[in-house]
Amino acid sequence: MKIAPRTNYREDVVGRANVEDTPELLAYYDELDTLKTGALWTVANKIEPWFPQSSSVPVLWRYNDLRDHVLRSIDLVSPEKAGRRVVYLNNPGRQDVAAAVGWLYSGLQAMNPGELASAHNHSASALRFIMEGSGAYTIVNGHKMTLGANDFVLTPNGTWHEHGVSEDGSSCIWQDGLDIPLVNALEANFYTVHPDLNQAVTYAVDDSTATWAGTGLMPGDDKWEHGYSPLLKYEWAPTYEALCRYARVTDGSPFDGVLMNYINPKTGGPVMQTIGASMQMLRPGEHTKAHRHTGSFIYQVAKGKGFSIINGQRFDWQERDIFCVPSWMFHEHANASQSEDACLFCFNDLPVMKSLGLYREEALKENDGHQPV
Amino acid sequence: MKIAPRTNYREDVVGRANVEDTPELLAYYDELDTLKTGALWTVANKIEPWFPQSSSVPVLWRYNDLRDHVLRSIDLVSPEKAGRRVVYLNNPGRQDVAAAVGWLYSGLQAMNPGELASAHNHSASALRFIMEGSGAYTIVNGHKMTLGANDFVLTPNGTWHEHGVSEDGSSCIWQDGLDIPLVNALEANFYTVHPDLNQAVTYAVDDSTATWAGTGLMPGDDKWEHGYSPLLKYEWAPTYEALCRYARVTDGSPFDGVLMNYINPKTGGPVMQTIGASMQMLRPGEHTKAHRHTGSFIYQVAKGKGFSIINGQRFDWQERDIFCVPSWMFHEHANASQSEDACLFCFNDLPVMKSLGLYREEALKENDGHQPV
Amino acid sequence: MKIAPRTNYREDVVGRANVEDTPELLAYYDELDTLKTGALWTVANKIEPWFPQSSSVPVLWRYNDLRDHVLRSIDLVSPEKAGRRVVYLNNPGRQDVAAAVGWLYSGLQAMNPGELASAHNHSASALRFIMEGSGAYTIVNGHKMTLGANDFVLTPNGTWHEHGVSEDGSSCIWQDGLDIPLVNALEANFYTVHPDLNQAVTYAVDDSTATWAGTGLMPGDDKWEHGYSPLLKYEWAPTYEALCRYARVTDGSPFDGVLMNYINPKTGGPVMQTIGASMQMLRPGEHTKAHRHTGSFIYQVAKGKGFSIINGQRFDWQERDIFCVPSWMFHEHANASQSEDACLFCFNDLPVMKSLGLYREEALKENDGHQPV
Amino acid sequence: MKIAPRTNYREDVVGRANVEDTPELLAYYDELDTLKTGALWTVANKIEPWFPQSSSVPVLWRYNDLRDHVLRSIDLVSPEKAGRRVVYLNNPGRQDVAAAVGWLYSGLQAMNPGELASAHNHSASALRFIMEGSGAYTIVNGHKMTLGANDFVLTPNGTWHEHGVSEDGSSCIWQDGLDIPLVNALEANFYTVHPDLNQAVTYAVDDSTATWAGTGLMPGDDKWEHGYSPLLKYEWAPTYEALCRYARVTDGSPFDGVLMNYINPKTGGPVMQTIGASMQMLRPGEHTKAHRHTGSFIYQVAKGKGFSIINGQRFDWQERDIFCVPSWMFHEHANASQSEDACLFCFNDLPVMKSLGLYREEALKENDGHQPV
Description:
- The structure is a homotetramer.
- Chain A has eight helices and 24 strands.
- Chain A is of the alpha+beta class.
- In chain A, 18% of the residues lie in helices and 30% in strands.
- The first copy, chain A, has a six-stranded antiparallel beta sheet.
- In chain A, strand 19 (305-310) and strand 20 (313-318) form a beta hairpin.
- Chain A folds into two domains: 1-50, no CATH class; 60-369, Jelly Rolls.
- Chains in contact: A-B, A-C, B-D, C-D.
- Chains A and C meet through helix 6, strand 13, helix 7, strand 15 and strand 16 of A and helix 6, strand 13, helix 7, strand 15 and strand 16 of C.
- Chains A, B, C, D: Residues 108-173, 279-346 form the Cupin type-2 domain.
- Chains A, B, C, D: It comes from Pusillimonas noertemannii.
């Protein structure tokens, strides 16, 4: 896509470019074009914005709207033809890269009992968050993990992985999350189909949690040297229990309530090098204050109902709904129940922001921290 | 930019999407559109490529072609109007983001004696590599650095910085390098004009090199805690001397000859969190073998003449020429002189590739490692 | 203590000192003495041994022998006079520094219901492992932790800490472990009595486990910056459960059975900078192979009965017995039961060995890895 | 050495042990003895001192006193018999471990032209600081380094190393520094004589500095993974130049003047895991203020003359004199010249203090920071 010729993005501010076109300059610009160059002052204000202005828009995807379409895909296309039956979230501002927000991809995948997708690997990092159904499992580099609702599982960059549902299970739906758009944009994505189409299970089933989910404990003979977590599955029951225990001893964050990050137990850092994840609890009646920060965020409602105000727009959500918060947009969350807690699963590109030195955060100062809607 | 409707990117390969359109599916796709969603199998093969296919093209910018245009900018626009007089390198594949290659911006800036640009800061990281002229200087957070040809200076993300040329100097030209396109793409760029338009020099001139350029030594009372190097200027004379000394004791790399990375002396890591840099020497007559890797690279010829073969295309270069190597393209370098060494300055996004776990490298196996041209 | 004059430690081996005394040399040695110097060759073979020869001896302390004496201390001395009623383990080879083995101190402390020791802090790092009784608690920097049998609690270097037993508890006995001898030897120990003699509890009781013992989770608003773990208590129930789960999916170590290290969840590293700890399970009938390594180790039998062979000597143990393994002595462990597992708690100075680059390990090659007794 | 029986180290301070002997207690203590145990309150105040009380004493070793004795060793013993001809510094408080101060060993070694000691390795880390003579060299793991006065060279733990003087050199004297006492105390020392008695030189002479002494540069193809610096020699000329440059832009430290640490260029950290080193300049007439800190320090006067006040005692020094500062003793330094700078080389165990979390520092507050003498 070529820049519209002679759009100069002028700003009448000291320290900013403000050059008016002249015949001489227009001729000069034409010459520069022929040399595969341009005059910085014609684009400077465009490429040096005062603050991030995300091309993504806030979106809420209601599960009630999507569920039937997702299940219908099972009938519409075969796994052999489609690879995977997935309805992906297509942010109106990011359709060119098929992103749900920023550089994050997300989709809802459905699978019938007895089905097993073929194994592949790619440079993109991936995660799944189970929404419904029984018998789902994922195999990552020979480690098989059984999955239930609200379980969170990693399929990190470069690992062989495949998803299936056991014969005695039910139709399953889960949310996929990947950094495909980012890795494509960074021109670093590789894709390989497993030579045998499926991999062998070479470890005891659920060995990853049996080995790495101990509280404050790590196997003595560990030799893990990957950049991602050896704990590949984070189960819902202990996660919710941890949140409840933490909620009893903390005031929580004014912006996020009681939030815990899923971590790599080897390092205390994020679960993968490009994608972080968290589970947060909004206590009964809690309405957090607004802040904004760099980074792109995708939420799924794991429990309860409420609403979020994102960039001044209110989005009401209930269990299984998904919504996104683009970079540098103010957002605040509210639990609509006075008696039950609400829980939000979130994945994001915070590890990218932080390892590149680009994280910045700001609280809303006006109106006691609440956005007018 | 919207995906052309119903472009299905089909591939007839096991494990890839290969779904033909049917009236029922087309209707289904239309319904998904209204829900801000899509069917993954219609885009899967597009967003999961087999290997990186850069949108950048290899380009050589000849200094002989550019120099007059750069100097002419001094007469054409005033610093007050233009901010900076810069001719930027506009890769034909990356004009939408004004990048020289990948997500890296580069431009040639000119300044007359006695001029001083206004101070600003931004989240993008920047560097300069001095091409010609005397009296140039840069001020970074109160540290003033005097600059000569082939000196390399950092203006890291978030620092106040400004460039000038002293009254008794001559017209100067240097190459700017920034990650503006990347930081914009990551929606994390902030820009601020210094409230006083210019900052005070609050340290002894060239204190950064006096403090941090000691060989194997570090100040005892150091409290540096930034993500970027406290050594902000890397002078040409000691750099070239270090290369010559290293050349005497190493065989060098088959792909790069005698290459040294500029480092942050606090950590041994890259100079900034998003941009790495190196200087490499091709010994008289040396012709390296071809390899390819992820990451985008911009070279300036600091000394000598020769050629590079990039993606099968030969580019002849001499001192001050600039060329780029896009991600995952094979490249090899040759020194055209049998008696003099040649030196290539390079900056790149390797720190991004490495901190995100996306670096991959491959040697050309055929033809004794040399590309047919 | 002065070296016995003119002991020359001669060895008739090439590369070792082997100088016989002569009248001229003896006179020379006397002159060197007056200058606060000596001739290296008179001590070289002594100070450069071929391999570590620990001054500690292996010892087993039977709880049956010690328990009455420990309880008797409660009647013999008052907390006011004694500070703490502790019977410390006094290795015959380390009585000069009151160490149980190497540079590690250990003792058994008794306390009656309603008692509370005064608060202090010191540069030494400390831990407790609860042996019997109910109602014990520890307060560390305002965090109060309630304790039961086989719970493991940290009181890291520099923290205010105090131990007590609640009014409604019973007489308690626990094992203390500290690096007091090491920190004294390094001439870096400071000791302070709390100005108020006791500290306030400023957090919710057991907030440390509520916050940090989540499996694969970390609080989102964490600002911890100490060198030691924010998780200060490791409870027995989840520890044993983790061992049992891990045992189901691992072959274990040939030398240690199923061993897990207690870790700092912020880093995946040891719980404190100078002391590491582990819990290991010997499966029914398991008899490990012998190896030796640098570092000093103190074990307490948390569950079951069996024996260990240390440096060729067999030590039979049962629940609550304590034994030590000095540096570089071969050791192997055996569970005497064919039906029940046995568990060994251990603390050691491995973090010192590893951070100073001094860890070395060797398997016994002879006799299928078992020491003759 | 056994603790004198029934020495109770009583202190009449709240929070400290203060138990008087009774016949019942004495009988109890005897019983504890038989169980290889003791009563903590009889030793608590001894093993938990209020602050570090070093067993080392401050000592100044005058080179004028030592030089003849060192050279005489060449005639008195052969290299074959003695291994090395070394006069070691024997701190009156540390003769039992042959330490110069704390857990650091130091000695002056002499060697004649054409001599070459046999190669060995040990777990202790070592360094040399050249005092006089020409032609000295050291070989470390195949890397040969040529040495001149005030050059500083590493022979890290576990490396094969040997020292020699070339045929065309002169008699050489250098200072050795090692952590032998520490590694012995930690029961982790291993010693091996090289199977061929001498090792081959397998790299270009002085390749270490040619590769690693570049200012702000690191070889691009580096694979170094040891815990110690790949830069094994730090030459005097660039060290002094770096100090002079730094002195022009810094106020220096009130306690140390212009001090720079020798660093590992791979990490910015200390040169070895157990021993740090620095060179500091006292400007003409400079008299620093007193502070104290944990850690043991050995200084050699590399240039100039002056005095230091250590623990209230004045020590006058000139070039080549050596002195030590024990842990937690106040010390201040003064340059006696009003026109020439003075330089102090120092090595110490700060890396141990810091990696174990034991570093503490305090300025003298009284008397404007100067000790009364």
